[in-house]
Fold Major facilitator superfamily (MFS) profile domain-containing protein.
Amino acid sequence: MDRKKETRKGVPYKELIFVGIISFASALPITSLFPFLYFMIRDLHVAQREEDIGFYAGFLGASYMVGRGLASVFWGIVADRIGRKPVMAFSVFSVIVFNTLFGLSVKYWMAIATRFLLGALNGFLAPVKAYSIEVCQPEQQALGISIVNTAWGMGVIIGPAIGGYLAQPVKQYPHLFHDNSVFGRFPYLLPCICISFFATLVFISCAWLPQETLHKHKGLERAVEMVEGSTTQESTEPPKKSLLKNWPLMSAIITYSVFSLHDTAYVEIFSLWTVSSRKYGGLSFSSKDVGQVLTVAGVSLLVYQLLAYRQVNKILGPIHSTQVSSALSIPIIAAYPFMTHLSGIRLDMPLYIAAMLKSVFAITRVTGTSLLQNNAVPQEQRGAANGIATTTMSLAKAFAPAGAGIIFSWAQKRQHATFFPGDHMVFLVLNLTEVIGLVLTFKPFLAVPQQYK
């Protein structure tokens, strides 16, 4: 791979296409449940009152991230030992199995268990980020990471669209599906089946994944060590720095995790807020309406990454672009609760524009912090470093939906409070986390890797 990079001119399109497809397939099931999560909890009959649905929805949404948080360091270490490709292929296979089982859940504990196992066995994020960095020349690394984050963002946004359009098909498309069909018995199976089918195609295509990027030539290494041992007693290789003592890495991971907490809480709150009744401060949208909004946001994200992001990164760099996008997200979030007073086209226009801008700013932040992480460590530690980042990010994302669900449920019960009534309080908490993330992008909280100084 190193020799290929030296002789190759231009962008490694073939490798990055595979990176994008695998990232997209692995990200689809993460948020595909959000448009129908409210209705699924209601149908599982675990909530005693309508106001309690958000409470149980939060824990179900968190179960995936709890599983991923517990296993990500392990998968990062495995990727540094056996290579990037096997871990990525196994992760796609886990999507096929456990996402399908989630669609077959008829009990709350079954849904929790399958989502937890899906998160624990889907360890693609650490190796795929390392792979995308290692196939690129230094000047192309921003593109490599942006491909991962764009595909990830597209999956996270199109996933809810699939869930919104295909959940409860008997109710949404009665002329195509009947109550006695399997989709009448399992109303949330169809979106899961579609995602698993796409993941199956991606898993088969892993056989043609371009070459491994991790150096694994153990026989050659032993021969080199024998030759070097006969000529010198001292090693010229510097000792590896402990990842936990690598402050440029750890500070970037902390900032990345705060933004990840915010983004996950935002997706859950946005989905719950839009489908909840107007008497509770929501928009009374259907799951299809939510999916449509998020699909448009996903298209805008793709256009931005293809046409604008490289220039943004070239002009501002990863740090300043993160700061600017974080600051601009704050007024957008503050505007959401005021949209409940609108209807028709007067509601659609600002809602769609806000969702598109919020997605663009989120992917800019994630890409910038990911670049800082991956350039703070050498290649042989990159998988483990991304594993640590994925673990802390997953724990933050595990807390986010549970916390967001609890706060959302609590806020719906205080519609007439004098201090930030109803959903105003929810979006205030979202903005406070955004402000914390913005503060962490400045010195002395953020240490900059050498190449960005």
Confidence is low (pLDDT under 50) at residues 219-238. DSSP finds 18 helices and no strands in the chain. The CA atoms of residues 86 and 176 lie 40 Å apart. The radius of gyration is 22 Å.
